[in-house]
Write a sequence for this structure.
């Protein structure tokens, strides 16, 4: 599926809302304007094999229907507006869902600005697939024979695609979709070193830096790995990853992390039907990296690339105040076609 450079609808059917112009407005619109009234979820805390807490938020529904595993983006959670939008779309279809909160990202349901602490000297990162593997196998064991699907957003998309490439023979996930994936982490980090990009990066680093420094205070292992001075001075993803994220999680540095954690190297190995949805104007990824990902993917992977839409945006609609979020319905419809 390809994109169109014209001002009208694309072959995909997406037409950006005239009142949400440009990639940056598309990117931030939902975060600033969407309802904060949460979907009713049932919380479960699983103990991981290494003795930590992994928080799952379940959308319940009729037994026997498909279940969708949702993976949020960097510093997101099950309360992120794009995850909540997917949950509403899944619920309208009568399906069930499980939103997985990456370690250190789960929010207190009563005070959603408060992140819950974890018990191990680690956080999460774009290439960490062990927790997803644990959750997928736990859910599959509970509901053998049921259709298990997955949707990853941004960082969550990278994690999902990497896991699929690591497990080409897996039989748990029937089909998957990834939205606004930063396929090449190094290219994405360099792309965000622009003046506008640093605005986005600064928002993420504010909480990432706090988490890393807290880890050094709570755990001697983290203190031995993280360079506190460089972490405090970090102003780009590369600087933070080199000083904190990479060494904390067993990488030799940022370049080693980007090389081993990027999903672009795992796309040729994917055998599960997967949809990768991206916008060419995504401010988090250069277009050439997107084209390399599309060129290198296996035949099991479909790409839906629109010319516009920003990062996790795709805001359409004819009238202000009545936006339509194109990606949510599109990916759920695509998954539905794979489960019958």
């Amino acid at each position: 599926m390809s994109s169109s450079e014209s001002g009208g609808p694309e072959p995909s059917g997406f037409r950006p809302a005239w009142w949400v112009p440009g990639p940056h407005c598309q990117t931030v619109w939902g975060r600033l304007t969407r309802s904060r009234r949460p979907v009713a979820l049932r919380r479960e805390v699983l103990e991981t094999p290494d003795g930590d807490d992994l928080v799952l938020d379940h959308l319940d529904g009729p037994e026997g229907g498909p279940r969708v595993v949702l993976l949020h983006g960097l510093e997101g959670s099950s309360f992120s507006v794009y995850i909540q939008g997917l949950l509403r779309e899944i619920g309208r279809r009568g399906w069930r869902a499980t939103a997985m909160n990456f370690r250190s990202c789960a929010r207190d349901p009563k005070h959603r600005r408060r992140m819950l602490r974890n018990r191990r000297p680690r956080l999460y990162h774009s290439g960490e697939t062990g927790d997803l593997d644990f959750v997928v196998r736990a859910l599959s064991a509970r509901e053998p024979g049921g259709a298990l699907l997955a949707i990853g957003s941004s960082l969550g998309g990278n994690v999902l695609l990497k896991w699929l490439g690591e497990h080409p023979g897996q039989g748990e996930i029937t089909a998957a979709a990834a939205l606004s994936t930063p396929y090449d982490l190094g290219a994405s980090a360099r792309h965000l070193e622009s003046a506008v990009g640093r605005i986005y990066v600064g928002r993420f680093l504010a909480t990432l830096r706090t988490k890393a420094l807290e880890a050094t205070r709570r755990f001697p292992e983290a203190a031995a790995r993280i360079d506190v001075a460089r972490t405090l001075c970090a102003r780009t993803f590369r600087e933070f990853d080199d000083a904190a994220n990479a060494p904390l999680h067993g990488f030799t540095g940022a370049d080693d992390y980007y090389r081993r954690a990027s999903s672009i190297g795992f796309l040729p190995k994917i055998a599960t039907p997967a949809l990768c949805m991206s916008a060419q104007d995504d401010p988090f990824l250069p277009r050439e990296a997107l084209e390399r990902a599309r060129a290198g993917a296996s035949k099991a992977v479909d790409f839906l690339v629109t010319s516009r839409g920003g990062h996790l945006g795709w805001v359409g609609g004819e009238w202000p105040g009545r936006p339509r979020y194109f990606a949510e319905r599109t990916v759920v419809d695509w998954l539905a076609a794979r489960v019958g």
